[in-house]
Specification:
With 269 residues, this protein is mainly β. The protein has three helices and 14 strands. The chain has a single domain, classed as Acetoacetate decarboxylase-like (Beta Barrel). Strands 1, 2, 3, 4, 5, 6, 7, 8, 9, 10, 11, 12, 13 and 14 form a 14-stranded mixed beta sheet that branches. Helix 3 links the parallel strand 5 and strand 6.
Amino acid sequence: MGELKGYSLPLSARGTAGLVDAPPWHYAGDLIGAEFWTTADAAKAALPVGLTPDPVSAGHGYALFIDWQVSGDNQEYLDPDRSLYSEFLVLLDAQYKGAPVAWCPFIYVDNDAALARGWFQGFPKKFGTIKQTRAFSVASNAAPAIGPGGTFAGGLSSAGRRLAEARVTLDKPIGTIPALGRPIVNLRHFPRLTAGNFNNPAVHELTQSILENPMVANTWGGTSSLTFLPAPHEELADLKVTRTGIGFRGTLSYSVRDLKILTGPDATS
């Protein structure tokens, strides 16, 4: 009887049945985003133990809609059924030991492998349907221009209910993606399924994402609108949008092959 192989479940005899292959994971995607503010109290309520509100920008955050393509080192992007997925996430300003960080309280994807990669890193991913307006390299009335006046929309639904919608109208190149100004902190949490230990998780640790070789291209900024909608079993709308700021669109790439553990027995800081 041989040992089962693989990086993630299901482990198997040949080691090829796993939901996710071992890193590195290389990402490239088009995104639209909206800067927003909610109340300081709502933002504070969304933070885990170990993070505190940023005293300068409490309530400030970003909402992002991203069309991703992901691959390992062996052109796995040639299998688009597995390599393509869409994502929506929120990033809130916070502090860790007095240093500015971004906290991700909510994130949705439409691909099971993306869900697993997120959980391994601490992103609290759920399934959703995420769509955004596309741009193309030919002029057409079916698509906006990536340029002044080009307007893009994004929408998130989950379990048949609309949860978020945004619009971004471009004005000028900005050379950056505003939401990437802070390191992202997440919470890896894996509970126990043993009687009497439901509140004693097997893993509960703050992590910091390590985005290797991040690059951006064709980034434009402008204005935005953003709405979070209430639904049963959802708390995204608790981050009620009180106003919006810059809207933006661009292309992003980076790689992941490591993770910084901030708290817990395996902490690296």
